[in-house]
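Follow-up to my post from last week.
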Amino acid sequence: MEMRKSIKKRRIGIIITLLSLIGIVLIFEYCKIAEWNMFFMVTEIVLFIIFLASFVATFIKTGLWGFIHKPLTSLDEREIVLTGKSLRYAYSIFTVATLALLLYFAVTNTPIDMVLVVSLILFAHILPAVYIAWTEKEIYQDA
Amino acid sequence: MESRKIYNRIAILRKEKSLTRHELADKVGVNFQTIGYLEREEYNPSLDLAFRISKVFELPIDLIFSIEPLTPLSQLLTKK
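User reply:
Got it. Predicted complex:
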């Protein structure tokens, strides 16, 4: 059985995943300055659930996560080119995003938190799959 | 350097041989999605893959692939 997800749905999934990840970090950073209260705690948990759900729907169920982690020997020539391209773009985007964030934290003299570090690592890890999900016309999963 | 677009007759030859994309993909050793990309001329195959495809169709490479838009095979035959 093959599962197919349209490019539009995939892009919406990517946007939801990334926005929820950014939301988690922003609320955490805000609550460092202000105080944690019930509203922020509930929002943080809801965002985490949204992140997990959209991540599973966009990357796991479409087979993208499995594709990105396949050994090179099991990929054909087009897939090797695609993987290389996705890693190249992911590296560039991650470098620019991380440098901009580090600059902001340095200028504002704000300490860097573990939540931000974990989010950045997660961001770096999902970026190649994001590139493929965003650009590829066909993504099938043999289930 | 941007590579040139390579036109091909894979779709028509595959249908003529009554092969599915999966079957052709298995014969040439690629993922079936790659056959779709080749048929839509959205991916230029390597020389190795082009040779494997020409072996499956038992035709010379220049009859399957071209750097110029291809005319239908039937038209070529009637010209001769």
